[in-house]
Structure formats: C-alpha cells, structure tokens
Write a structure and sequence with these properties.
The protein is an alpha/beta fold. Helices cover about 40% and strands about 20% of the residues.
C-alpha cells in the first residue's frame, strides 16, 4: 500500500521518475489504458499497474470504464487523472482590469471572467472585486470551497517575494504598503502565490503555448504596460530581488514623456497600449480603446497600422539589447498588442536584426504568443497546479480548454 501523508497525497519519498512519466502520459492523452501507458513510457505492464494503483490510492487517478471495440478479449479499462481532486484559482490584476479563472487539476477551465476597474489606484477595491468574482465562479461551477487548493495572483509590477507584496515604487501607487498576498489569503481562505504578471505569461507559454520545447525564451507582454518574463535554462528568472524584466522602464528618449515610474522617456511611455491608443484617438477625433485600435489596424486602418508598426520598431531596439545579453531562442510577444500579429512583429523583427549582434539575431525566433491576453491568468493557474503537489510538477502536455490552439 502506498505511503501517504494526512491529506492522502503520495509520500514524497515514493515519488519516482516513473511515477511522473505516467502522470505526463495521462496529461498528454486524457483517458488511456494501462497498456497504452506502458507502450508510450516503455515501462513494463506490471510496473505501470503498480504505479497506477498507487496513484489511485492517493486519489489522483480514477477508472473511466471500458473501451468498446471489435477485438477479441475483454476491453481494456480506461484511466484518467481525477480532476475532482482539487481546484485552482488564477487571478490576473492588469492595470485597468482583473481577470479570474478557476480550473481543475486536469487544467480544464471551469469558469473565467474579466471585470474592468482601476487596479493601479484602487488596491483594496481590486482585491475585494477579485474575491467577489472567485465566489461567483465557484458558485456557477458548483465547486465547494473545500476543493480549492490555492490561488495564483499576478500584479503588473515588481514583486517582493519575501514579503508577498509589490516593491515600493510609483508604478502601482495604491499597492505600496499593501500586503497583497496576505490580504488575498484572508479574503479567499486558501494559500496564495504572488507573481509578476509577465512572469506568469512566460510560465503559461512555457506550459501551454509558444514556449513549449524552448529552454531559453523571453515573453514580451505588450498591453497596458510593457514587461518581460524571462525563462532561462528552463526556469523563470526573477533577479536578485524580483526586479528582472522591467523592460517597459528602459530609457529610450531624452526629455520624453513622464512615466508613472517617475522617470522620463521610458519605453512604456512610447509603445504601451494607452500611449498608442491616445495617438490614434487624436488622429480620428474620437476615443479609441486598445482593443479597438488593434482591430482597426487588422481591418487596414492606415493610422492604426502606422502607430503599431512604429511601436514594434522602437520595442525591437530594447529587445535587441536583451538578445545580446541573454541569447534567447525565442521572443514570444503577448498581451493586447500581440493580437496585431505581423503588423507589430515584422518591424520588431527588423529592429532586432539591425541592432542585435548578428549571431544573436540569427539565433532568435520572434513569434506571437498563442494564449493572447489570457496568458497571465492561465500562468496563475499553472503556478498553483504545478505546486499543488510535486506529482503535478511537470509541464502541461495540452492547453487548457479555451486557451487556443498552439
């Protein structure tokens, strides 16, 4: 009988590479037979049967009945990960909205919604709104609070991981001094993990999307702000104090616009969504939102296309410097502006090719993320599911429902 702790989880001493290979096969194929797992993993059928029994005893795997067919003999019994073993919450605080999702351990999104609000200047209101949305989603999905394993939470600013809060700065003024992680834990009654939003986007693309198979890549989030999630050597890189990846606050222009960080001429003041939408709004004589601007560009509007293309060129210079320093395999562009596709990416590629060292420029692929503006909330879910139990620590094999095709 497998050793268990008080929660029924497998004893860490019993978690073997072979056990993880079986979990990976179940993630990849959903419902399969023991024989199919043996063929895929190369393990003997007896080993597979023993390890599957351990997983079932721990409540992580269930039988799904028999597969029909015209072959001789008894149909094989099918097994699958038990998605009811727990539920994760993902919360993404963007600058002007909060998005919340809940998912089971098989990464199926059970509910998701987004609400517009001023996150930067209303920390307590944003925390309250997120907790309210969580209650609504759990109720709509019929999920008992006891099944919630934890929550992942993303903020659009530098994170002090030791204290579970935002580093003091002018970037998120109302969050300074707020113990964000503890505040959300008090509201939800479950453990919460706090992370920078661009890092969550990188985690999601590594698990579900355009980062799969790449050990070194940079996730460039271009939305209400500009951030970079760095996935180096197969791991997130946060820097010494969590400040790595603040690409939006790279200096690019003398006497440029005043940035919310307190400096002038930051990259973000020139290429972030609000700055671009303001330019298009002025040219059209009407207020245009970031999504509307992107759609205008996709529909062929000359002004919107020019504004987004110029942003790609300017951003490409900063990205070229990252290529020289880190030599990534891929630059994955996500966020609302990433939806513009090659209108943004072609000029960005051109700048990388021009300003990066040729060997670094030749080695990098610049592509669009496949998770779009959902990457951060999906990364928050992955943060919880990957840490819920070490048995679930492998990269996901398939995208969560609704995440889009890879």
């Amino acid at each position: 009988m497998p050793a268990e702790d008080s929660t029924g989880a497998l004893d860490p001493a019993r978690r073997s590479p072979n056990l993880l290979r079986i979990v990976e096969a179940l993630r990849a194929h959903g419902t399969v037979s023991r024989a199919e797992i043996a063929r895929e993993t190369g393990l003997s059928r007896s080993t597979v049967s023993t390890l599957v029994a351990e997983l079932m005893e721990a409540g992580l795997v269930v039988e799904r009945g028999e597969r029909g067919g015209g072959g001789a003999g008894r149909p094989p019994v099918m097994i699958a990960l038990d998605s009811s073993a727990g539920v994760a919450i993902g919360i993404d605080f963007a600058h002007m909205s909060v998005r919340v999702a809940i998912a089971d351990l098989a990464s199926r999104v059970l509910g998701e919604t987004e609400r517009e609000l001023d996150v930067d200047h209303g920390a307590i209101e944003a925390l309250d709104a997120a907790a309210e949305i969580v209650d609504e989603l759990l109720g709509e999905a019929g999920v008992e609070r006891e099944r919630v394993l934890g929550a992942g939470m993303g903020l659009a600013g530098p994170i002090d991981h030791a204290r579970g809060r935002v580093h003091p700065s002018a970037i998120l003024p109302s969050w300074v001094g707020v113990e964000a992680q503890a505040e959300m834990e008090a509201r939800l009654g479950v453990p919460v993990r706090l992370e920078n939003d661009a890092n969550l986007g990188a985690l999601a693309e590594a698990a579900f999307g355009a980062g799969r198979g790449a050990a070194t890549f940079i996730y460039l989030m271009m939305s209400g702000g500009i951030g970079a999630g760095m996935f180096l050597g197969g791991r997130l890189f946060r820097g010494a104090t969590g400040m790595a990846g603040e690409l939006g606050h790279t200096f690019v222009e003398d006497n440029g616009p005043l940035c919310r960080c307190g400096n002038r001429g930051c990259l973000e003041t020139l290429v972030a969504g609000p700055a671009l939408a303001e330019l298009v709004s002025r040219s059209r004589g009407e207020v245009v939102s970031i999504p509307e601007m992107v759609q205008l560009a996709l529909d062929g509007d000359v002004g919107a296309r020019r504004v987004i293309a110029d942003a790609g060129r300017v951003t490409g210079r900063a990205v070229a410097a990252l290529c020289n320093q880190l030599n990534p395999e891929r630059i994955i562009v996500g966020g609302h502006l990433g939806l513009a596709g090659d209108i943004l990416l072609d000029p960005l590629r051109e700048s990388v090719g021009r300003y990066a060292i040729p060997a670094a420029a030749d080695a990098v692929e610049v592509c669009r993320g496949v998770l779009d503006d959902r990457a951060e909330v999906l990364g928050a879910l992955a943060l919880v599911i990957n840490q819920a139990d070490p048995i679930f620590s492998l990269p996901f094999a398939t995208p969560p429902v609704g995440a889009g095709a890879p």
